[in-house]
From TrEMBL:
It comes from the Bacteria. Coiled coil: none annotated. Residues 78-491 form the Sulfatase N-terminal domain. It is an enzyme of class 3 (hydrolase). This is Arylsulfatase. PROSITE patterns: SULFATASE_1 (PS00523). Residues 1-24 form the signal peptide.
């Protein structure tokens, strides 16, 4: 009888069929059966389709079925739990000498290894892009955070199809992949429901995502997504906190995976928002640290330094770098300042400990399933050094300091009792940040010095790493994590993914160090660059620029020429672990060679053009759905539009027009809003009266209000604002009109200089997040009438 299967195969590409067979590595079960599995070569993803090796006759009785084998990783391949916290320098965790207990990280270190020369890029989005791709941050378009993206290959925040993530590689090799917590690697102009979603986590190889998209979010009322859908799990739960919710969700997900497919290995990327501002731990954790920082930041440095030497996580000959003249010493402060600053540190420490506790629950869940022995855990404390973005004084609202402003201590004291609650969006003084980066100089944003880039990192895999509690001092970088995972899983880096040729992985595996503490560093060279500050490591030597301005000034100072206006320093790290002894004057020839090496590395990895602007880049036009638009029109109820896809009224004149119908009994509710409790505006009806309220970063509120309630029927409401600009944060004059009649006119001295709150949304007809004035209304404050048309007109 004619075998139709033979004819069918003849129509297939023989090349594809033979390629599939050549790539089949390890096969279990009988090929063609439903239980058969196979590993793949993996150099070309997705794996070419398997040939049909059954038989097809005229009917099922005369045919033989054949199932393609399920793709699995190699036998014994470990589960992967990749953990990274946020904004925490080398001296934060107790595991690396800090005064804040981190027992979950201790657990990883005590059953595995501590790495004492592991590095980030000095900023969050860039570090995260490098971490999940195994390539330098400029190579994958993340020379800065996405909100500062510019139209150059190294800075456009587009990872690109030629840079497949570790999630994509593991997924196509048979892993279940998931991502919990912070993203910040999707272009900020692609956060909306319009997508595209190819650079959302679910488009970058992760089967499941539960977290937030931007640099940070309110942990009490987060701007949260499940896959690509915004969700509100905090509504109606007064004790809700995202740090616990993320752990609950991850634990449930791991249990579900085990129940559904216990033999399928998982890759869990667990990256909570802690300890990036806002510092939002629960009260029970804050209470644990009451009085623990009354000794002040200078004594804290000494304690951390002594602990680090005792633990052996810094060499015995390490010197503690000098305290900077730009920051006050603790003993010079008045009583109120000491009280406020101690409170700031208590809340930060509570946030560190709280986050570590929840991470510990996730690790324990893996243990409870009997999977810990064959799980590779990588726990990185911080994606950069401790943040200096709270300014010298700290702040109850991060938006204030991000905009380049400060709040006096006396005003901040009003928030003392509520510090860390949902009534604050707090950050601590940079003096604490400097202390938490002990023994190094500088902080987050400074790529030239290890205060910005040196991270505590612990790694365990009980089935494979046997030197429990060991210390490794090889020089490594976040780009080395992907190749380490690939070596552990026996998976090759692909040459092609979805038809796109892949850039080479630029990291090197760290697995060589597992069995040999004395092995020389496999990484011989590594460049660093952020906002024009540069560094270059080569075989034990390190050259770097001197930061011309402190990062806590947020780019408000005049910067020197980025190419020729910087001073350089030189360090021999084999003798000077903490970058304490500058040898530039003594060894100019070596410095020159290092500078030349930086130029070569920078050219190789898309670092040029150098740019030391900060605030200016926040306002750079980007290819969003709003690019070039001056008029925006909406009708009915529309909520959840991210600020990047909404009309941006910052630093400009604008007119908002609402054509509404008021019901019998009077109008009430929100017409349009951007922002909320910590800054923004709302245009609404309150007891029938039109109100436009401008919340100046929770430091002042400016109000325009009509005297009369609107009658039932149709009305046209207008708010027209004429800016005193150009320039950052200029004031202006606002006029509120009802049916072309002026009902309120007020001039205000200033406006928000650069950014509306990034974790709020643009809403029409409702307010879905926090309110701009919670004495006036409570969310969702839905409008009880009809909005026929709402228009926002922007002027230059």
């Amino acid at each position: 009888m004619l075998r139709l299967g033979t004819l069918f195969l003849a129509t297939l590409s023989l090349t594809a069929a033979s390629t599939y067979c050549a790539r089949a590595q390890q096969v279990t079960g009988e090929l063609g059966s439903p239980s058969a599995t196979t590993t793949i070569d993996g150099r070309y993803l997705p794996n070419p389709p398997a040939s049909f090796d059954g038989e097809i006759g005229l009917d099922a009785k005369s045919s033989k079925s054949y199932w393609p084998p399920q793709i699995v990783p190699q036998k014994g391949a470990p589960n992967i739990l990749l953990i990274m916290t946020d904004d925490a320098g080398y001296g934060v965790s107790g595991t690396f000498g800090g005064v804040i207990p981190t027992p979950a990280m201790d657990r990883v270190a005590n059953t595995g290894l501590r790495f004492t020369q592991f590095h980030s890029t000095a900023l969050c989005s860039p570090t995260r892009a490098a971490l999940i791709t195994g390539r330098n941050h400029h190579s994958v378009g993340f020379g800065v955070i996405s909100e500062q993206a510019t139209g150059f290959p190294g800075y456009d925040s587009i990872i690109g199809v030629d840079n497949a993530t570790i999630g994509e590689i593991l997924k196509q090799n048979g892993y279940a992949t998931s991502w919990f917590g912070k993203n910040h690697n999707t272009p900020a102009f692609q956060y909306s429901t319009a997508g595209p979603f190819n650079q959302w986590p679910t488009g970058m190889g992760f089967d499941y995502f539960y977290g937030f998209m931007g640099g940070d979010t309110n942990q009490w009322e987060p701007y949260l997504f499940q896959n690509t859908t915004q969700i509100f799990p905090w509504v109606g739960k007064p004790d809700y906190n995202l740090i616990t919710d993320e752990a609950d969700n991850a634990i449930d997900h791991i249990k579900q995976l085990n129940a559904a497919a216990p033999d399928k290995p998982f890759f869990v990327y667990y990256v909570p928002g802690a300890t990036h501002a806002p510092h939002h731990p629960s009260k029970e954790w804050i209470d644990k640290f009451k009085g623990k920082f009354d000794m002040g930041w200078n004594e804290l440095r000494e304690q951390i330094f002594a602990n680090q030497k005792r633990l052996g996580v810094i060499p015995a000959n390490t010197q503690l770098t000098a305290w900077p003249d730009s920051l006050p010493k603790w003993e010079t402060l008045d009583a109120d300042s000491k009280k406020l600053f101690a409170r700031q540190a208590e809340v930060y420490a509570a946030y560190v400990a709280y986050s570590d506790y929840e991470i510990g629950r996730v690790i324990q869940a893996v243990d409870d399933l009997g999977k810990l022995d064959n799980t590779l855990i990588i726990y990185i404390e911080g994606d950069n050094g401790t943040s200096a973005e709270g300014s010298v004084l700290g702040t109850p609202n991060e938006l204030i300091t991000i905009e380049g402003m400060q709040m006096p201590v006396a005003e901040q004291m009003k928030f003392y009792d509520s510090w860390g609650s949902n009534q604050t969006y707090p950050h601590m003084s940079v003096a604490w940040s400097w202390a938490f980066d002990t023994p190094f100089k500088w902080t987050k944003q400074v790529a030239s010095h290890f205060g910005g880039t040196r991270q505590g990192m612990a790694m365990s895999w009980p089935a494979r790493i046997k030197d429990a509690g060991g210390i490794r001092s090889q020089f490594h970088h976040v780009i080395d994590i992907v190749p380490t995972i690939l070596e552990a899983t026996g998976i090759e880096a692909p040459a092609m993914v979805d038809g796109a040729a892949q850039k080479p992985i630029e990291g090197v595996s760290m697995a060589y160090s597992w069995d040999n503490a004395q092995a020389p560093s496999a990484r011989k060279t590594q460049y660093f660059e952020m906002f024009g500050n540069r560094g270059i490591y080569n075989d034990g030597w390190y050259a770097c620029t001197t930061p011309p301005a402190a990062p806590w000034l947020m780019g408000t100072t005049t910067m020197p020429d980025v190419v020729d206006g910087y001073t350089w320093e030189l360090y021999n790290l084999t003798e000077d672990y903490s970058q304490n002894n500058d040898l530039a004057a003594k060894n100019p020839d070596k410095l020159k060679k290092m500078q030349e090496l930086f130029l070569m590395e920078a050219a190789k990895y898309d670092v040029f053009p150098l740019d030391n602007s900060i605030l200016e880049r926040l306002l750079t036009p980007r290819p969003s759905a709003t690019a070039g638009r001056k008029e925006f029109a909406y009708s009915g109820v529309m909520s959840g539009i991210p600020t990047s896809n909404a009309p941006n009224v910052v630093n400009r004149s604008y007119t908002i027009t609402a054509e509404v119908s008021i019901p019998e009994g009077g109008g009430e509710g929100m017409l349009v809003t951007t922002g909320g409790r910590f800054g923004g505006y709302g245009f609404y009806l309150l007891k029938g009266k039109p109100v436009f309220l401008y919340n100046f970063v929770n430091m002042a509120r400016f109000r325009w209000e009509g005297q009369d309630a609107l009658s039932a029927g149709k009305h046209i409401l207008v708010f027209d604002f004429k800016s005193d600009g150009p320039g950052f944060g200029k004031g202006g004059t606002g006029i509120l009109k009802v049916d072309d009649k002026e009902v309120a006119n007020e001039k205000i001295p200033h406006t928000i200089p650069a950014l509306m709150p990034w974790d709020e949304t643009f809403d029409v007809g409702v307010d879905t997040r926090t309110g701009v004035d919670e004495t006036d209304y409570q969310v969702p404050f839905a409008f009880n009438g009809e909005i026929a048309k709402l228009t926002v007109n922007l002027q230059p």
